[in-house]
Write a structure and sequence with these properties.
It is built from four helices and ten strands. With about 200 residues, the protein is of the alpha+beta class. The longest helix is centred in the last third of the chain and has 20 residues, at about 165-185.
Length: about 200
């Protein structure tokens, strides 16, 4: 069964078109008008082996917040659709990923219950402008949007880090690797991996 999804979202603040294939190779075509966010989404796709196409525009002259949040919402919604009933998946995944001095651990559960635990970013990270346009606080906000709309549980913990670029990128790569493990087919799993019979 094809695990793909296409989604669109248009508001007075942004317009987003997105397509993904969970069984891809990490190919990307991403243009959100927020360059560092494009970089993070590319890292997510590459390391989760998800083919991802995103075209987004928005009122970035005001702030990148609306565009980034809406892409996160659409990405989470597309993940939820593409996963279907989750029969045969591993369900759980975890990864610890370094980027030079930064180190992040992420754990994902495709539980059907949206919950995010996020912490460990260095003091002042949330106020830092990465690339001169992407506020550090948006990292957590994107994870919230993805997790809530994909209906998954995720723990993302920064264990070490000083450079804001490295910290943010290690978070996205760790999340990607954990998601890659969770979405992967498990030949030992028969049906839906839950005692409830549904996720």
């Amino acid at each position: 069964m094809s695990r793909t999804a296409s989604r669109e979202r248009t508001t007075s603040e942004s317009s987003v078109r997105l397509h993904l294939d969970l069984d891809g190779t990490g190919r990307t075509e991403i243009s959100t008008s927020v360059p560092f966010f494009d970089h993070l989404l590319t890292a997510f796709a590459k390391h989760s082996l998800t083919d991802l196409t995103v075209e987004a525009t928005g009122d970035v002259q005001i702030d990148v917040h609306h565009t980034v949040e809406d892409v996160g919402i659409v990405l989470g919604d597309a993940i939820r659709e593409a996963l279907g009933d989750k029969a045969g998946v591993a369900r759980f995944g975890d990864a610890t990923v370094p980027l030079d001095e930064a180190l992040t651990r992420a754990v994902v559960d495709l539980s059907g219950r949206p919950y995010l635990v996020h912490g460990g970013e260095p003091a002042g990270f949330e106020l830092h402008l990465i690339g001169g346009h992407f506020t550090g606080s948006m990292v957590r906000h994107v994870f919230e949007a993805i997790v809530l709309n994909a209906r998954m549980t995720a723990h993302v913990d920064v264990l070490a880090g000083r450079d804001p670029h490295h910290v943010a990128e290690s978070e996205f790569k760790a999340f990607a690797r954990a998601f890659r493990a969770a979405k992967a087919p498990d030949p030992l799993v028969s049906g839906i991996p839950s005692t409830k019979g549904a996720l």
